Prior knowledge:
The chain is of the alpha+beta class.
Amino acid sequence: MSYGVRLFVSGRWGLFVRPEMKVERVSYDVMTPSAARGILEAIHWKPAIRWIVEEIHVLKPIRFQSIRRNEVGAKMPARAVGTAMRTGEIGDLMLVVEDNRQQRASSVLSDVAYVIAARFEMTPKAGPDDNAAKHLDTFNRRARKGQCFHQPCLGTREFPAHFELIEPGALSPPAIDESRDLGFMLYDIDHAGDRSSLFFRAQLDKGVLRVPPPGSKEIRR
Length: 221
């Protein structure tokens, strides 16, 4: 039995930030595998399963547009937040947005649409009540109804992703007829290890970006 899924996602804008360009933000040409995983996890995720993105189909021409965005240029110290949660004492813990607002230029993708082809596998945290068929049914049911734990986004939270389940056996929308070398792309963060960034050489082949499986020699640090 196959536990693969396909999800159509679209939006007006997308910003999949290149980590080497953090000040003036520039998007990758195509959605990254980690961004695709985040959309799947927004619909259904449990510690018992792990999503593995296999392909990203690009359905619309790759177009960039420059915009200016307001960002908050500071973060609350995580340690101070943890202390406040443990003790219940907020004290002077606060972040005034008006005092930390910054305007930055961004090069974003315009009018994007993708098909995410992915599968999941069970993890060692799966309990006796967990089984793959149950999780597959849960994902399909939630995606079919448009249900999600939080609004999935196209790279950043200000660019929401609209999604629709592609039913098993149904045809996927056609991808663009374009092939190109996309260079090294962010694969994911090594959450199980030292939290370093992982990369792979991305190739768009007739509109399809094929993602190497976890542990592949194609994945580099």
